[in-house]
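Incident log entry.

Two folding requests arrived from the same account within the same minute. Monitoring flagged them as a possible duplicate submission, but the sequences differ. Recording both here for audit purposes.

Request one:
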Amino acid sequence: MRILPLGTGHDAAVLLQTRGIRAFGDGIVSVVLAGYLAALGLSGARIGAVVAATLLGSAALTLGVGLRGHRVGRRRLLQLVSVLMVLTGLGFAAANGFWVLLVVAFVGTLNPSGGDVSVFLPTEQALLPGTAPDSQRTGLFARYTLIGSLVAAFGALCAAVPEWIAARVEVSDETALRWTFVGYAVLGATVLLRYRSLSSAIEPPTEAPAVALGPSRGIVYRLAALFTLDAFGGGFVLTALVVLWLQRRFDLSIAISGAVFFWAGLLSAFSSLVAVRIARRIGLVRTMVFTHLPANGFLILAAFMPDARAAIAALLVRSALSQMDVPVRTSYVMAVVSPAERPAAASVTNVPRSLASVVPPILAGWLLGHSPFGWPLVIGGALKISYDLLLLRTFRDVRPPEEQVVEDISQP
């Protein structure tokens, strides 16, 4: 397999590299976050509140960048957010009290999920289609997703390192976990350096549009509404919360949880390449729906499993299916809007992933504080199934350019 599809070049390579660097930090932080906050003495509800603050802050920043960022240089924008990533890591490493952590979580780039929900994601998504022809767009996004999931999986596996260090260097778990966030800041500095090598070709045209969204406004808003429902369900099963459930339900350590999400990440990573093949046969929308539905069934099933092995098996099967829709979904959004609308469309459709996920972590934390049963998994899975069915009904006839061409050729 080629690392880059045909027709792509330097800028695409840089964006894939920065995705991988950030993914490593996201992977390790998503696993250690709940344990770190618990080590600081926070209750389940307060842990959920901090997780919610990261999502709410990301949503506000992402929406602002999407609606106003078309007036700003894209390289400058990405570099500024990289500086914010550095400050976020240092802030979490230095903070102690709940309210300080809450503020840093809100204004920073911390990600409580193995996937990317920060302002980086929609900005890079808007840039990637311009680096490849339409025929290679889904393949490029598949590689973008593959790298993110694969490196995030290794990050999750490395979540066991602080615990290992604490046992051998005679430092507390809390101190060892603090250094994880220092490492997150170092990754932010590395991302900053890589963004500096982007070429001027990624900058928007001089005649930037007066409004962020134009003719595609209706489609974007309908997609955003559906993604809101999906993200609301996903907010109940963020990685940090599933780790907390595994700890409360089966007494799993952070090290074991990290190993679980390492394998889950590997399965998710390589499934994105399979999604490209499926999409070529049945189309982007059907690929999103027909891979996502069974994944959510296994998510609900995991809650009813009697032991850790069975629950982990269900979660791993879910992981092998649940992320197939990610590159396909992104490719679809970027295909059904004009190039000038892509930054705003990427932000407006990604904001629900953060904004709609604000309340569920608080509810999930409260539920797990009162019962070890996997109510968050059941609720989240049911909501995401509703999203799948509504997406198919609403957008099955709205096709991207490459599918319209195939249809025209096939007709007599």
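Request two (distinct sequence, not a duplicate):
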Amino acid sequence: MDIIWEIIIGFLVGLVARALMPGSQSLGLIMTTLLGVVGSLVATHLGVAVGIYEAGSSARFIGSIVGAMIVLFVYGLIAKKK
């Protein structure tokens, strides 16, 4: 059941990150969900490295959105080069 909640929250985080990021992102449903899930993982690991979170804790919603925006920015840079 936890995996289903992670996917749902990842989708919501991906939608919010895409809405806040300037420009047009043509990502589908699956890519938006993956963006949110990966963004949450990035936020968790960056938070632990900086000292915001303790090891083993998960990123909160705002941190997940910031992480998803970072992933979306990097994805945009990579997609431009192709």
